[in-house]
Amino acid sequence: MNIRIREEARQHSGPGTKAIVLALSLLAGLVAMGLIFAASGKNPVDGLWRIFRSGFLRSYGISETIARAIPISLAALGLCVAFRGRFWNIGAEGQILAGAALSTWAGLSLGASGSPGALIILAMILAGALGGALWGCIAALLRNGTGMNETISTLMLNYILAEFITFLVTGPWKGKTQHGFPYTDRLAERIRLPMIGSTNISWFLLILAALAAILCWFLIFRTKFGYELRVSGENQEAARYAGINAKRLTIILMLISGGLAGLAGFGEIAVT
């Protein structure tokens, strides 16, 4: 049997194609949600309309949508960095929890001191980014050292961190004032992030997310690291031929990816 191989130029998706793919993806999601409603005996059109109306057509719903979207956007930026390098980080949830845990530790430890609130918030930010970065780096080390698939390692690390958080809030970190409830003590009032008016939107987190988006764009498209990241993601053989250190790149991209998810964890606990 003769096998004929033909080489073709790689097709790059234009803006129009990307827009169509996005629209079809959203449509597929809506159809899936509608089928779930229908299977439950509910009117799918009415259910989807209620979701859209409450989230995007009412002032309270809009503010809550924005407030929930801010930490998600920080974690998503981290995933964009990892995915650019073809590192399939499925562990954003665990990295968020790691950042939240270390931020909580910093807030509770320093909150009772006489340190200025701004310095404590800065320490919480750094602690959150460090927690997420270190937790994310575990998967990078496993891939570099043992060749372990990062999809599996990052996914499994989510469950480990979730169980560890449960241990903390029901054990050594259980608040003295939280009788019968698995919560830590509340953070000092002076280190909670300020909100926009009467909403739950923190202007500080909003600015932080916007700056993070700009910095990620600059990092990916205007730096040597970003060039190496894109080359490695598009063609690993070409990256190896160009002398790009794949193991070093993997460590750095997961420190960044996990660090951004850790910032999302800081955002989750600093507004409660």
Quick recap:
The chain is mostly helical and 272 residues long. It has ten helices and no strands. It is globular and about 75 Å long.
Describe the structure.
By secondary structure, the chain is an all-alpha fold. The chain has 10 helices and no strands. The protein has helices at 15-39, 44-56, 59-84, 92-111, 117-146, 150-170, 203-222, 224-234, 236-241, 246-270. Helix 3 (59-84) packs antiparallel against helix 10 (246-270), helix 4 runs antiparallel to helix 5 and helix 5 (117-146) packs antiparallel against helix 10 (246-270). The chain is globular and about 75 Å long. The N and C termini lie far apart (68 Å).
Radius of gyration: 22 Å
- Beta-strand share of residues: under 5%
Summarize the helix and strand pattern as letters: HHHHHHHHHH
Q: Write down the oligomeric state.
A: single chain
Q: Which word captures the global form?
A: globular
> Could you tell me how far the N terminus lies from the C terminus, measured between alpha carbons in angstroms?
68 Å
Largest sheet: none
Q: What's the total count of β strands?
A: 0
Q: Structural class, please?
A: mainly alpha
Helix content: over 70%
Count the DSSP helices.
Answer: 10
Q: Residue ranges: pLDDT <50 for 5 or more in a row?
A: none
